[in-house]
Every structure is written in C-alpha cells, then in structure tokens.
Amino acid sequence: MPRAKTRKEEPAEAESDIAMEEAPTSHQPEAEEDNMSVDQDDNDEAGAANEEEAEEEEEEEEVQRVRLLPGSTPTAASFEFLNETHTLGNALRYIIMKNPDVEFCAYAIPHPSEPKMNVRIQTFEGTTAIQALEKGLRDLQDLCDIVSDKFIDARAKFGEGVSA
Amino acid sequence: MDYDPMVMDDAEALGPVVKISQADSVRVKYELSNTDIAFANSLRRVMLAEIPTIAIDLVEIEANSSVLADEFISHRLGLIPLNADGIDTLLYARECDCEGHCENCSVTLTLHAKCTGDENMHVFARDLVPVGDRLNQVVGTPVLSDAEGLGALILKLRPGQEVKLECIAKKGIAKEHAKWAPSAAIGFEYDPHNKLRHLDLWYESNAKKEWPPSEYASWEEPPQEGEPFDYDAVPNRFYFNVESAGNLAPDVIISEGIKVLQQKLAGLIHELTESEEDGMNGGDYNGPRSPEYGTGADGFGGYTTPFGNGGNQSTWGGAGGATPYGTTPYGAGQSGWA
C-alpha cells in the first residue's frame, strides 16, 4: 500500500513545484499508465502474500538440499541443489561425464541471486541418473583423497629436499 | 553428427600429479596436473571462500577517546588475522546450544590502551589479550608474524586518549565475510603461452613483446612459429600460489580446502542416500521442471540423441568392456584414482 500511495502523490507534487514541461520524463503524469501500475501493485501484493505463506510452509519442513525435479525419468533426471555453487557444480559435472554409463551431464545456476544449482544427468540403460549422481559424488571424493595424499607426499619430499 | 567421446589421454589416466616449487611459512607454490580445470577451480574456490577460520565478529566499546570512530575501529579489529589452528574444536555460534556465545563457540579478547606518555602511542594486534576459558591456548590469539612480534597496527593514540573494548571472535567462512579468508591471496594460472587462446591480450603493436612472460613460461613448451591452433586442446597444468595471512599455514590451507570439499560431498551423499527412500518426486509443484519428452507414459526413455536406444548399439554405450573406457580406471566400476 505505501508504494501505491507515493505513486499517486508524486505527480501532484511535481505539478505544484515546477512547470510540467521541465520535469523529467519519469515525473510526467501519465494518467492511464499510472492507474494500470496501481492495479499491478495490488496484484503484486496478493502475490507476495501467497509467496510468504509458501515460504512459511517450506520452513516448517526439513530443508532438503538435493531434490529431484518433477518430470524426471529414471535415466534422465534433473536435480536441484540448494546452497551449492560452481565450486561443486563444475567439478561434479566433470566427474559425472567421466562415467562411461552417462550419456549427458550439465549443470547450471539458473539465477545468480538464487542459491540454487541444477544438474541434469542422462544415462544409458543399466544405470539410473540417481546412481550416476551418487557415483559422481563418490568419485569426486576419491579424487580429493588422491590429490590430498599427493600433496602431502610432495610437501614431505620438498621439505626433505630443503633440509638436505 | 559424429560425437566424440571424451578421449581420456594416457596422461590423465595416470591420475593427478602435484609438484611443489616453493614452500615456506608464508606461501606454497605448486603445480597440479592431469586433472580438469573444473576440479582445479573447485579447489581454488574452496580454499578462497569456504575454509573455516576465526575472526572478531562483535566489539563492545567501553571507552573510546581516540580520533577514530567506534565502528571504524571495530571494522579494523575484524580484519586482524587470528590464529585458526584447532578451529575444528570450536563450534559455529549459530550451531552452539548457548545463548549468544560461550567458550565453546567464541574467544573473547580485550583491548585496553591509554596513552600516558608525551608521544603518540601505537596500539598493535599484540595488545589484544585473550581472556576467560578457552578450548585451547592457540585458537583466537592474534597473529604476530612480523619481525618485532607486534602484529597489525590497529590505531594510534595522542597523549591522554584511551580505548577500552571487548571483542568476541567467532568461527566463520569467507563466503560470509572476507575477514574469515584463510589466504591472503591465491594465485591460479594455466597455459602461460596462451596456446589455448583463453586470453585476448591487449597490445600496442605486438602482444608477445609487450607482455612480460609468466614465471611458468619456461615450464611449458612455447608455441612453434606458425603452429596451427589446436582446438581440441584443454588446459592440463595448473599453477597455484597459496599465500597465507598467518591464521593458517599455507599447506594447511590446501589440506583443509580439500577436506572442506570432501565434507561437502559427504553431506550430499548422506542426504542423497537418505532421501532416496522417501521418494524425491514431490507432488504439486510448479517450479522449475526437468524437461519432459511426451508424457513419459509411452515408455520413451527420455532422450532423443543418436544413442537413444539404450545405447547398446552405439559404439561406446555398452557395458564398458569394449569401449575405450574398458582399460581406464573407470572400467571396473571401482575407482582407480590411486
């Protein structure tokens, strides 16, 4: 409501202060459009109220960080990860694509201001997208293990080299 | 269209390689090779923003007659590196059972300085004194790595001026605020000769003459005169330069970074195996959807690529034995990264 009010007042103020010709375009009264925008505001508010209710409902449920998006089949599925970024997405995509049973894998962050990351996996028959995702996660863990071990080894060897 | 499966070259099949070129208390320079840029970048990102450290988060100011405003000093205090060894024992304040903060989720430091002499007084990070019960004697103490052991300069006081304050240091990650960053900087570089042309170098007349060569330029073969562009080439060697701010040793930053990445994966695996049982397909939902081909009721598998019929007829879709992957670490179904 406050937004709608200010919008109505603005043209009136502008009229009393300066000649309309001099006012910037944004302050020029446009009666028809203004009415329309007020209507839209009302709609927005109704929409916002619905959203708020939905959010409350979501909060009551336990936050599920991985979700299978509806419309998925066993061998072709899209997953939505909450609070994940390119940090996980790109590496996961890479490792899942390494799996020979996977036909296609891609990831996307649909909007930069939403903390969501989507992964699409399509597999050949014989395995499912969920299995491919799980294998991908485990493979990436193994890769991390190896890099970690290799680094510790290299660091130890480097230390020896310096002291010798 | 001919679909080229990811050709795993022999080098990559050997698994990742780490080569260290410099390592001391401030920095580690190393080369990570035989991995994909996606993984190298994940490692960079996680070291940069997701390793937990400790930093001053709340400041209660009792007296401040210095020329600096309270919030200005508070901001400076937040940026002071505190020792984060043993941060694992500390809880996040939001996950702690206590109200506000306690010794399990915070470290309290006090600062009391008054200039009683005739000359201006310098107040350093050294003057921050940890007080109260602490989980261990290291975590949360100011980093004093300079030659005099003074630490960072916080403020200066004129004769007669005084500051008295109490700081609450909490655990956090740099994704929330840069003050929790474990590294001062992370250098990340690949392809020093720009053979892949990921860079478009600006130049007056000759880019090669005007741009100084990278310090890693001698590590890789320079391009031959008139060499054609290899459009299949992918970056394979990544040069990291991890520089510590003092709160964590540089090699600890790398190990911790990998650990954080693994914890992230472990959490997701746990959630995935758990949620499989209660079925993830929610009923009424009008958010983003997985693309649907037809209704799904016609038994159509869901993809329309040339490899659609189960993949068995394709050159490489079978059980894996007859494919180029048969001999790769992935062929046997067990991870072969070792």
Detail the topology: elements first, then pairings:
The complex is a heterodimer of chains A (164) and B (338).
Chain A: H1 2-17, H2 31-60, E1 66-68, E2 76-82, H3 86-98, E3 102-108, E4 116-123, H4 129-163
Antiparallel strand pairs in A: 1-2, 2-4, 3-4
Helix pairs in contact in A: 1-2, 3-4
Chain B: H1 10-13, E1 17-23, E2 27-33, H2 37-49, E3 53-64, H3 70-78, E4 106-114, E5 121-124, E6 129-131, E7 153-157, E8 162-172, E9 183-190, H4 207-210, E10 237-244, H5 250-275
Helix pairs in contact in B: 2-5
Family (chain A): Belongs to the archaeal Rpo11/eukaryotic RPB11/RPC19 RNA polymerase subunit family.
Biased composition (Acidic residues) (chain A): 31-62
Keywords (chain A): DNA-directed RNA polymerase, Nucleus, Transcription
Describe the 3D structure:
Chain B: One of its GO terms (cellular component) is RNA polymerase II, core complex. Chain B: Its main location: nucleus. The complex is a heterodimer of chains A (164) and B (338). With 164 residues, chain A is α+β, with helices and mostly antiparallel strands. Chain A has two domains: 59 residues, no CATH class; 98 residues, 2-Layer Sandwich (Gyrase A, domain 2), CATH 3.30.1360.10. Chain A has a four-stranded antiparallel β-sheet, covered by helices on one side. Chain A is globular and about 60 Å long. The radius of gyration of chain B is 27 Å and the shape is globular. A four-stranded antiparallel β-sheet of chain B has the order 1-2-10-9. In chain B, strands 3-8-4-6 form a four-stranded antiparallel β-sheet, covered by helices on one side. Chain B has 338 residues and is α+β, with helices and mostly antiparallel strands. In chain B, 17% of the residues lie in helices and 22% in strands. Chain B has five helices and ten strands. The chains are: A alpha+beta (164), B alpha+beta (338). The interface between A and B is large, with 65 and 72 residues.
